[in-house]
Amino acid sequence: MTWFRTALSLVLVAAIAAGGCSTPPVAPREPAPAPRSVLRSASIDRALEDRILALDPESISADDVRHALAMGPTPHIVLIHGGIYPVHLAMVSFGRFLTGMGYPEDRIRDPRDRSWSVSPYASASQIAGVLAWYYEHEGVRPMMVGHSQGGIQAVKVLHELAGAFASELHPVDPRTEQAETATTIVDPLTGGERPVVGVSLSYTAVVGAGGWALILPNHWIVVGRVRTIPDTVAEFAGYRIGVDFFAWDVPGVEALKTFHPSGTAIVRNVTLPAEYSHVLVPVTADLAQDPAVHAWIDAYRPGKEESPVPMPDGYDSNRLFAADVWYSIKKHWAQEAQRFVRARRALSPG
Fold first, then answer.
1. What's the confidence (pLDDT) of residue 12?
2. Strands of 178-180's sheet, edge to edge?
3. Which ranges constitute the DSSP H helices of 118-203?
């Protein structure tokens, strides 16, 4: 099996080269936002605040998205794609699905280069620093969605935020990709200074995480933690495909592949149909463009056998994954917006 050892060596060398991204140079910190300035400067009126507070996060309609959530505080969503070219295009499709469903594009795309997703070989501490920066400057906790190796990286980022690998982290300005000298941020809702370590996200989803990719050196640090979810996310969803040879998912190994919380995080494990493709599961952009499918996805509720909107024939591929993630994104989007509005109103009651 000389050819196999040679091929494996090449893969490992490539992974080391790609995964050797260090934390960017530390730059002098720009003036931190003044305490609660994010709340005060938000351009939302009382009527919009009232509508946001009246939302039921468990039942968000397309009209709620368009005329309430998209007009108010919106979390950044960091997408992390898989590691083999051109699988990043699958996450481009997923990003376009989200915008097709009504999510603001500028809350997904990178502000520096307009890319849709982040490489799984980027520094996990850098991604963690970017997420903390977004929270400090926008006042709503970000979200992550990771595919394949990107799912492993997303879990690694959660552990970075939990302080598993370093006692301090720096905020990273996504506009320049430079880490700042500080190891703290100003909490936008309380106005108090807090460490970057311990910053939490509202929602993270991963699909196809694990399997052969864990042999790559850039993921070794998280091998023993990849199924354990720390408290640096409020809700986590782990999606596995019924039969997925890339992620080593087959019937009978559920106990080994189940995500579980280390503390208070809500963790969901969802099995997708076996006919789904590991590589193509995020390819969902077309689902948002058909009005009938769009309506079915908006009406979807996890665990509900019957939908009030019939599903048209011919759209089975990836729709369960798309609908389930979109439901959770809407829910946490609403909860974060409500959290923001309540903190804003506390500044000037009445």
1. 33
2. 26-27, 178-180, 172-173
3. 124-138, 149-161
What whole-number distance in Å separates Cα of residue 288 and Cα of residue 98? 8
> ω into residue 104 within 30 of 0, thus cis?
no
Q: In the prediction, which pLDDT does 163 show?
A: 97
Q: Where are the beta strands (DSSP E) in the chain?
A: 26-27, 77-80, 143-147, 172-173, 178-180, 184-186, 193-195, 201-207, 228-229, 233-241, 260-261, 266-272
**Cα–Cα dist 314/300, whole Å:** 17
pLDDT tens-digit readout, 191-239: 999 999 999 999 999 998 776 566 667 777 887 888 899 999 999 999 9
On the 0-12 / 13-18 / 19+ scale of CB atoms within 10 A, 289 is: exposed
Owner of token pair 């070989």: 121
Contacts of 37 (CB under 8 A, 6+ apart): none
Write down the number of H helices and E strands in the chain. Answer: 10, 12
Give the C-alpha separation, 190 to 41, whole Å. 15
Q: What is the token pair recorded at 188?
A: 């936008």
In whole angstroms, give the CA distance from residue 218 to residue 136: 28
Alpha-carbon span 179 to 125, nearest angstrom: 10
Q: What is the pLDDT of residues 87-120, one digit of tens each?
A: 899 999 999 999 999 999 999 999 999 999 999 9
- On the question of pLDDT at 316 being above 50, the answer is yes
Question: Over pLDDT 70: what percentage of the chain?
Answer: 81
* Domains along the sequence of the chain with CATH: 24-345 (3.40.50.1820)
